[in-house]
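Input chain follows. Return structure tokens only.
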Amino acid sequence: METLKKPVVTEKMTRLTEKHQQYAFRVDKRANKIQIRTAVESMYGVTVESVNTMRYAGDTRSRSTKSGILRGRTDSFKKAIVTLKAGDSIDYYAGL
């Protein structure tokens, strides 16, 4: 199971990073806080103070086409906000 799927890089998360040393990741739905903590610590070499998780349900979407109305759902996902120890930071673009 791949615990960390991708980082969440938005304006809001950039503000949280600068102010509170918090980083967000999309994670596997089955991952718990301990698995997320160990994955972040091993991948980025930082010390994690706390992990908060949120589950998002998929939204229903519909659109009109020539053949009628198409209905569907977006994927549900789980997001983790990781707070790092003071002085630690994560550089997402270091390996590029």
